[in-house]
Amino acid sequence: MTAAVGAPLVELDRVTRRYGDVTALDDVSLTVGEGEMVGLLGPNGAGKSTLLSLVSGLRRPDTGTVRLCGLDPRDPAARAGLGSTPQETGLPETLKVGEVVDLVAGHYRSPMPRGELLERFGLTDLARRQTGGLSGGQRRRLAVALSLVGRPRLVLLDEPTTGLDVEGRHVLWGALRDYQADGATVVVTSHYLEEVEALARRVVVIGQGRVLADDDLATVLAMASARRVLLAVPPAHDAGLAALPGVLDVQREGDRTVLLVADADAVVRALVRADVPFRDLEVRGASLEEAFLALTATATTPTQEPR
Fold first, then answer.
1. Maximum separation of any 2 CA atoms in the chain, in Å
2. Contact in structure between 67 and 75 (CB atoms under 8 Å)
3. CA nearest neighbour of 259 among 298, 228, 292, 296
4. CA distances from 151 to 116, 155, 157, 159, 288 (A)
5. Where are the alpha helices (DSSP H) in 190-304?
């Protein structure tokens, strides 16, 4: 597990949050230190948004403790240094981009200058345009930019590049990297491995409401590099395939068995050593979603994350 690099800004201690019969977070403990750029990676419904809502004080845990800058997140003093962007953000459509920035800036003692903020996010040419006339990607960039107006110590971003094209993503990534390099702490949720790889050096993998991995980027990338081994075997041998070293999951796909594996070569050698009769062998790359499903297979309680 990767340790926090500075004084803790975010602390969750054995936190559980339920919505009726659904457990969105299940006994989660996590610490984020000052100056970190942390990626919360996981499939949709993993519990990422619920976690951010607890840290920002929008929801309360059912059990466990959440601390923001050492205080209860519902304490206004704790949120004084917090900037956040949820998955969906409403903007006043009749106001111009520059006016919206000025409106938000008016709530802070020492806001980031309008020109600097717009330049960071490639929005300078849009300053006089009404927000109602922006494209979805432009609105998203503006929403993320607004989270930095007050120069927060901690920024929480929930799926920040949703709706952005490739160029827009790279502009936003660059702005966030520059801001974090100045000493801020940034926590980003995403189900895109590429996004977390571009931003974070510490990655927390969340699935079915639990922390499945908390490590450096290289280690988590290795976890996500699973392969699919497809082969036809007699039904009597199916049961023993899950016990082979490196096999994460076993499924059926038509008349063939599909093995999700960490090391395809090692699994094929194990098949030969075990004298398993197989044919029609094929090795393919696994999708990130398949890798996550394999990681979450040990979690016994399925969950959904309210949107």
1. 72
2. no
3. 228
4. 12, 9, 14, 20, 34
5. 193-199, 217-223, 238-241, 264-273, 288-295
Indicate whether 24 belongs to any domain: yes
Q: Which amino acid is at 230?
A: L
Given 204, 223, 242, the domain boundary residue is 223
Distances (CA, A) of 20 to 62, 155, 210, 303: 11, 29, 18, 11
Partnered with residue 185 across adjacent β-strands are 154
Q: Are residues 151 and 12 in the same domain?
A: yes
Look up residue 107 and give its two tokens.
């709530």
Which two tokens mark 159?
A: 């799926």
Say what the pTM is.
0.77
Domain of 243, CATH number, reads: 3.30.70.100
Q: What pLDDT digit, counting tens, does each position of 148-207 carry? A: 999 999 999 999 988 888 898 999 999 999 999 999 999 999 887 788 888 998 999 888
Q: Which is nearest to 220 in space by CA: 15, 29, 13, 40?
A: 40
- Burial class of residue 167 in the structure, from the number of CB atoms within 10 Å of its CB (0-12 exposed, 13-18 middle, 19+ buried): exposed
* Residues 29 and 97 placed together within one structural domain of the fold: yes
As a three-state string, the secondary structure of 103-124 is: HHHCCCCCCCCHHHHHHHCCCH
Q: What is the pLDDT of residues 195-226, one digit of tens each?
A: 888 899 899 988 889 998 898 888 777 766 77
How far apart CA 39 and CA 173 sit, in angstroms, is 12
Q: How far is CA 117 from the centre of its chain?
A: 24
The residue length of the chain stands at 307
> Which structure tokens are listed for 142?
């503006």
Q: Tokens standing for 12?
A: 């969750």
* Count of structural domains, the chain: 2
